[in-house]
Amino acid sequence: MNLQTIANPGVAAPVQDFRQGALEQARVANLLGMLPPRLRHALDIGTRDGYIARLLAERADMVTALDLELPRIDHPRIRCVKGDATALQFSDGAFDVVFCAEVLEHIPSHLLEAACAELSRVAQDYVLIGVPYRQDLRTDRTTCQHCGQTNPPWGHVNSFDEARLARLFPQCGMERIEFVGATREGTNFLSALLMDAAGNPYGTYEQDEPCVHCGADLGGPPARTIGSRVLARAATSVRKLQQPFVKERPRWIHVLFRKHN
Question: In sequence order, what are the residues at sequence separation of 6 or more whose Cβ sits closer than 8 angstroms to the Cβ of residue 245?
Answer without folding.
Answer: none
